[in-house]
Amino acid sequence: MLRSITKSSLASSNSILKSSILLNSFKSSCLIKRFLSSSSSLASNQSPPAQDVFLSSNNANYIDQMYSAWLADPSSVHISWNAYFKNLDSGLPASKAFQTPPNLFPLGSGNIGVANITPPTDKPMNEDVITHLKVQLLCRAYEVRGHQAANLDPLNISFGTHNKPAELNLDYYGFTENDLDKLITLGPGILPRFSNNSNKGQMKLRDIISSLESLYCNSYGLEYIHISSREQCDWLRERIQVPTPFHYSNDQKRQILDRLIWATSFESFLSTKFPNDKRFGLEGEESVVVGMKSLIDKAVTFGAEDVVIGMAHRGRLNVLSNVVRKPNESIFSEFTGSKKDDEGSGDVKYHLGMNYQRPTVSGKHVNLSVVANPSHLEAEDPVVLGRTRAIQHYKNDIGTFNKALGVLCHGDSAFAGQGVVYESIGLTALPAYTTGGTIHIIINNQIGFTTDPRFARSTPYPSDLAKSINAPIFHVNADDVESVVFICDLATEWRSTFHTDVIIDVVGYRKHGHNETDQPFFTQPKMYEAIAKKESVIDIYCKKLIKDGTFTQEDIDEHKKWVWGLLEDSFARSKEYKPTAREWLTTPWEGFKSPKELAEEILPHFPTGLPTETLKHIGNTISSWPEGFEVHGNLKRILKNRKKSLDTGEGIDWSTGEALAFGSLLLEGYHVRVSGQDVERGTFSQRHAVLHDQKTEKTYTPLKNLDEKQADFVISNSSLSEYGVMGFEYGYSLTSPDALVVWEAQFGDFANTAQVIVDQFISSAESKWKQRSGIVLSLPHGYDGQGPEHSSGRLERYLQMCSEDSRHFPSPKKLERQHQDCNMQVIYPTTPANIFHALRRNMHRQFRKPLIIFFSKNLLRHKLARSKIDEFLEGSSFKLIIEEEVPNKQDIKRVVLSSGQVYAQLYAKREALKNTNTTFIKVEQINPFPFAQLRDAFDSYPALEEIVWCQEEPLNMGAWSFVSPRLNTTLAETQNYKSFKIRYCGRDPSASVAAGSKKMHIAEEEAFLNDVFNTSN
Question: Residue 182, SS3?
Answer without folding.
Answer: coil
